[in-house]
Amino acid sequence: MAEADPASVGKLRPVAEAKAATTAELDALLRENKQPFVVRGLVSDWPLVEAGRRSGREARDYLLRFRRNALFTASIGQAGAGERLFYDEAMQMNFRTVRAKLPDLFAAIEAVESDANAPAVYLASIDVHDFFDGLHEANHVDLGDRSCLASIWMGTRTRIAAHNDFPDNLACVAVGRRRFTLFPPDQFRNLYLGPIDNTPAGRAVSMVDLHAPDFAAHPRFREALHHAMVADLEPGDAIHIPSMWYHHVEGLDPFNVLVNYWWRDTPRWLGQPQDALNLAIMAIRDLPEDEKAHWRDLFEYYVFSNGDEVVAHIPEEARSVLAPLTPESAARIRAYLLRQLSR
Questions:
Q1: HSE-up of residue 80 (Cα within 13 Å, Cβ side)
Q2: Residue 9: its pLDDT value, please?
Q3: Taking the domains of the chain in order of start, what are their residue ranges?
Q4: Largest alpha-carbon pair distance within the chain?
Q5: Cβ 28 vs Cβ 8: under 8 Å
Q6: How far apart are CA 328 and CA 323, in angstroms?
Q7: If 0-12 CB within 10 Å is exposed, 13-18 middle and 19+ buried, where does residue 209 land?
Q8: pLDDT digits 0-9 by tens, 43-99
Q9: DSSP string, 222-272
Q10: For 32-48, what is each residue's pLDDT tens digit?
Q11: How do residues 200-248 score in pLDDT, each as one tens digit?
Q12: Distance CA 53, CA 85 (A)
């Protein structure tokens, strides 16, 4: 395999582009594609996009018309530390978290908008329905019968380390330009993921600085770059990031706004796989090797293979949680786990 050098970070292959002129066409794309794709101009007719094209101030004024009188959470970086929201040398966050009214946060952004050395200001994953009245109705994508969580992301120039999410994601650039660098799920070993419990935003992130990768410390990142792809998006463009794909996200302009939609194809009552991983680390990882090997076989038998032999010898009415799960049987598992964990 040919060696990659640092310059290859700027020569990644582009994310494929697709066209979706109707809700039905977008629905078909989302159902049929397991790879990322970009739709240019998908939300170019949003009033928010139009306001942002005029100026960052007009975009902020537009958003303020819809905001609720609530406290918004924002991350504030360190002055002179650049736009990367990450860890510091002590593996603590290099930003602090504040809660304030949206007009005050926007005033803070406006005050530093033209200062390249000013601290980053970032409002991440704000629930559109909980914090705004009417914004969704005026600016949204029709995703059919999907049950979506709609979030808005607002701030100055930022760089967010590569991470993944469990739900599927349609991310729509409303104000400013954004760059997405994507890695397939199977590249997680080559991304050098950090802690899973001490994270900037709830998901383990790559410890590699994409702008200045240290190949001596992270040699396998060269392989990740061979599989990476990049998308530079303008206001009005959208990108579909399939579940579990890693994405490094950059807000490139003095003021940036993204609206995204998360959904999962399986019912929410099935729970979060990350919770199972955390519990397995606590209960299984440090067992003796022979015991751990047995539990690996049990997981393969009951969870990953889950063949007919698991239940063929059990009367159908007595299979309990070994039968296909329902909201009721999932609730029984959840209640059982809560009782066990509280002992």
A1: 0
A2: 60
A3: 6-265, 269-341
A4: 70
A5: no
A6: 12
A7: middle
A8: 999 999 999 999 999 999 999 999 999 999 999 998 878 899 999 999 999 999 999
A9: HHHHHH-EEEEE-TT-EEEE-TT-EEEEEE-SSSEEEEEEEE-SS-GGG--
A10: 989 999 999 999 999 99
A11: 999 999 999 999 999 999 999 999 999 999 999 999 999 999 999 999 9
A12: 26
Give the relative orientation of helices 47-54 and 56-64 as an angle to the nearest 10 degrees.
140
Cβ 163 vs Cβ 206: under 8 Å = yes
- Packing angle, helices 102-112 and 56-64, rounded to 10: 170
Look up the CATH number of domain 6-265.
2.60.120.10
Q: How close are the terminal C-alpha atoms of the chain, in Å?
A: 53
Among candidate residues 313, 6, 300, 13, the one with its CA nearest the CA of residue 183:
13
Q: How far is 37 from 212, CA to CA, in rounded Å? A: 26
Q: What is the mean pLDDT of the chain?
A: 94
Residue that has been written with the tokens 């600085």 in this structure: 209
Rounded to an integer, what distance in angstroms lies between the CA atom of residue 60 and that of residue 103? 9
Length of the chain as a residue count: 343
Angle at 140 between CA 137 and CA 146, to 5 degrees: 105
Total-model pTM: 0.94
Q: What is the pLDDT of residues 133-167, one digit of tens each?
A: 999 999 999 999 999 999 999 999 999 999 999 99
Q: What is residue 128's three-state secondary structure?
A: helix
Q: What is the pLDDT of residue 4?
A: 39
| Residues 190-197, mean pLDDT to the nearest whole number | 97
Token pair recorded at residue 38: 């970009």
For 96-103, the CB contacts below 8 A with 24+ separation are 97/73, 98/73, 98/74, 99/71, 99/72, 99/73, 99/74, 100/71, 100/72, 100/74, 101/69, 101/70, 101/71, 101/72, 102/63, 102/64, 102/67, 102/70, 102/72, 102/131, 103/64, 103/67
What distance lies between CA 223 and its chain's CA centroid? 22
Q: How many CB atoms lie within 10 A of CB 29?
A: 15
Q: What is the DSSP letter of 87?
A: B
DSSP string, 279-293: HHHHHTTTS-HHHHH
